[in-house]
Amino acid sequence: MSPVGAVGQAPFVRGHVDADEGGGGRLSVRGLTWRPAGRREPVLRDLDLEVPAGQRVLLVGPSGSGKSTLLRALAGLLLTVDSGDLSGAVELDGRAPGERPGAVGLVLQEPGSGTVAATVGRDVAFGLENVGVPREEMPPRVAAALAAVGLGELPLDTPTHTLSGGQTQRLALAGALALRPSLLLLDEPTAMLDGPTAAEVREAVLTGGRGLTTVLVEHRITPWVDHVDRVIVLDREGRVRLDGRPREVLAGHGEELAADGVWVPGLPAPEPLAIDLPELGVDSGTLLTAEPLRVERTRHRLDGSSESATVLATEQPLVVTPGETTALVGPSGGGKSSWLATLAGLLTPTSGRVTGPDGRAVETLPAEEVARLVGWVPQWSSSSLLARTVLDEVLLAGRNLGGGSSRTAARHLLDTLGLAHLESADPQTLSGGEQRRLAVAAALAHGPSVVLADEPTVGQDRGTWAAVAGLLAAHRARGGAVVVATHDPDLVALTDAVREVPAPAGAGESDSPRARAVLSACGPLSLFAAAGLPMIAAVLSPGWQVSSLVLALAAIGAVLGLANVPGSGPGWTDAGRWRGLALRLLPALVGGLSVGWSTWLLGSHDIGTAVSAALRMLNIVVPSAIVLAFIDPDDLADHLGQRLHLPPRPVVALGAALQRIQSFGAAWREVGWARRLRGFGMSWRRPRTVVAHLWQSTFGMLLRSLGSAATLAVAMDARGFAVAGRRSWAAPAPWRWPDTVIVLVALLPLGLVALAHLV
Questions:
Q1: Which helix (H) or strand (E) holds 551?
Q2: Strands, E, within 81-223: which ranges?
Q3: Spatial distance between the Cα atoms of 561 and 741, rounded to a whole number of angstroms
Q4: Residues 598 and 669 in one domain
């Protein structure tokens, strides 16, 4: 039996419940109506559906018709983080969908924000833990699910935050398939994948989900039509418009469905809308020149190791000229997004460089010049949204640069893209397709010379696709240049040049040996002890002399703990660990100096007392800065639940929250990218710009994190977390000899302080 077949056919064990063969559930929806808070009209209106067990349903409709909302309702998760008026009932085999852990598998529209664990293996195993699958049965289930979606070669300890968009999408599907749920809900599972990978994922759904009741949403429905039993069409008011066998529905209503935006098989893509945009006045010549590039990414693993991998390697230069559109095509994860980010000056290539019209490297240009040169549509559109309203988002870059689009022109763009009725809405509340169109409008509005667009047509119906394609064509016609990374063949057909971006040789493989730190051999409980015990010593220290010795012990511990495990890599340590430690220690040094200064100023002007206070502060913070960076959130939850026998739900939630905290750096970087490409510069010569950047980046990161936390809650509950009873654990929580050693070492400062008191 192939691994794909194994995912769908092996017995399904839920904890102490007897094994069964699983299978689809009967879905019933009666009078379902949903009006989100702040909206005047319902998104879904009085829906009635009956889906027999094992039926495979394709849910289609124009953009904004409520398809993704309906999937959340079928999963019983509408009220998990959202508020609004909900009426009607959804039942799976006569019970609410969320009553039985693991009964529903949901793959979200933007799966990256729904990653529930820090590493690939633990992410897939998360649902299995919630439904109580015994530990020994998890590895083959996880391996089979990853193989089914084409990620079988990926190491299980790969950090989830290092995956490409396409890989993240497949990972989310693997997590759902591993559960073998009764109801499988998929929101555009192949939208951001290349043709062969999309076919592989479809095969995983069809084979791994054989016998399951399946409801899937896709805009491009042609590959699915022959593999589903039924098509349900929603109208723009959130009602069921048509319901029947696929060929009958399409044959009888194909033209009217196409007119309403549905991608009807056999019909050519619509003509891009004819749109007039103001002339740019771009001089003839080269706008961007990219030499053959090599881009590497350093992955910092949770065990303290790091490795470098090549994510982009181009052999030919790329020249971007006015009035030309270039398409970057190739396999998912091949480096298309990295190439666009490098063209925008957001990534620094390891070799080669990207220059602007005047020959200067783009990455060195001031933010205002970059924003005038480049408009940016990122792969995940939500990462570029900075303003509080949709209209302000379109106007933001132009206002910042002292010109750009007027309110009338901005409203015209929104109307063209079907967003005019949302101009006062918060951009973060828009659907995925709406956010992508808004990102296109914001990138074009201020009239940059080049528009760099990453998958700009994903999630669009025929009408909104024509609008997006029309805007890109209009930008080219007004003298601008467009570079798109896409898997959309209809969009590629409209471009002037196509560049294949093959995956770099050995992509995803380490270009340097893994170097593991000594502290990575310790478990989270001993690391917490190593952080906490010196704090007690710092408080009890009798004077600055002893505090100095305690701090010296911490320094020695850092040297030993940050050294490489013998044989794990070249050299005795990794310079990146020390750079990270220096950044973590910076607040401690500032705090120590502040405490010492205030003690001297407000006290008796005694130097010894001030130094003692400063050293006490450092001794409280420094050990934590050294060891806490090595705590794996998933490992922490394992140890708290298994060794300390704390309730599993709180400790798992804590682990997930810490995993999100560790992604704050990526969120900060994305906000910084968005600000730079909107013209928000930062200069150390102008302290006000530094303060503004720090404040806005922090605020944006927190907003992004709140939205991410809401999606995370939905993703966790979709894998049975909310109603998990007896939970199992994918990994053991052992106490090893390095744990004992580090605790004994951490006791040395306490012993030193005790000795000082005795003497």
A1: helix 544-561
A2: 84-92, 104-107, 183-187, 213-217
A3: 11
A4: yes
| Integer CA distances (angstroms), 84 to 35, 99, 492, 709, 718, in order | 6, 21, 41, 19, 20
Strand 230-234 relative to strand 56-60, pairing: parallel
pLDDT tops 90 at residue 499: yes
Classify 389 as helix, strand or coil: coil
pTM: 0.79
Beta pairing partners, 481 = 450
pLDDT of residue 108: 81
Angle subtended at Cα 76 by Cα 52 and Cα 63, rounded to the nearest 5 degrees: 80
> In this predicted structure, what is the pLDDT of residue 161?
76
Average pLDDT, the chain: 84
Cα(256)–Cα(76) distance, rounded to whole angstroms? 32
C-alpha span between 376 and 739 (Å, rounded)? 48
* Residues 463, 553 share a domain: no
The CATH number of residue 24's host domain is 3.40.50.300
Count of domains for the chain: 3
Assigned domain for 465 exists: yes
Written as one string, the DSSP assignment of 499-538 is EE-PPPTTTTS-SS----BGGGGS-HHHHHHHHHHHHHHH
Across residues 193-198, what is the average pLDDT?
82
* Pair 406, 400: CB distance under 8 Å: no
* Backbone φ, ψ for residue 549 (5° rounding): -65, -40
Residues shown for the chain = 759
- Regarding whether 407 and 314 lie in a shared domain, the answer is yes
Rounded to an integer, what distance in angstroms lies between the CA atom of residue 733 and that of residue 597? 44
Rounded to whole angstroms, how far apart are CA atoms 672 and 346? 9
Of 144-158, 505-519, 629-643, 731-745, least confident by mean pLDDT is 505-519
In the block, tokens 């397709």 appear at 433
Task: Write out the residue range of the structural domain in which residue 316 sits.
Answer: 288-500
Q: What is the largest CA-CA distance in the chain?
A: 95
What average pLDDT does range 714-740 have in this prediction?
A: 85
For residues 443 and 375, the answer to whether their CB atoms sit within 8 Å is yes
DSSP state of 19: P
Q: What is the pLDDT of residues 396-451, one digit of tens each?
A: 988 888 865 688 989 999 999 999 988 998 887 787 888 999 999 999 999 999 99
Kindly give, in sequence order, each residue whose CB lies less than 8 Å from that of residue 324, ignoring residues fewer than 6 positions away: 476, 481, 482, 496, 497
Task: State how far the alpha carbon of 681 is from the alpha carbons of 29, 422, 670, 699, in Å.
Answer: 52, 29, 15, 17
Domain boundary among 500, 527, 562: 500
Rounded Cα–Cα distance for residues 659 and 261 (Å): 39
Choice among 20-24, 134-138, 412-416, 525-529 with the minimum mean pLDDT: 20-24
Q: Please give the structure tokens belonging to residue 457.
A: 């047509």
- Do residues 494 and 523 both lie within one domain? no
Is 439 exposed, middle or buried (CB count within 10 Å of its CB: 0-12, 13-18, 19+)?
buried
For residue 366, what are its two tokens?
């001031």
- 505 in a domain, yes or no? no
The Cα–Cα gap between 182 and 188 comes to 19
Least confident stretch, 199-213, 583-597, 692-706: 692-706
Same domain, 57 and 145: yes
In a domain, 264, yes or no: no
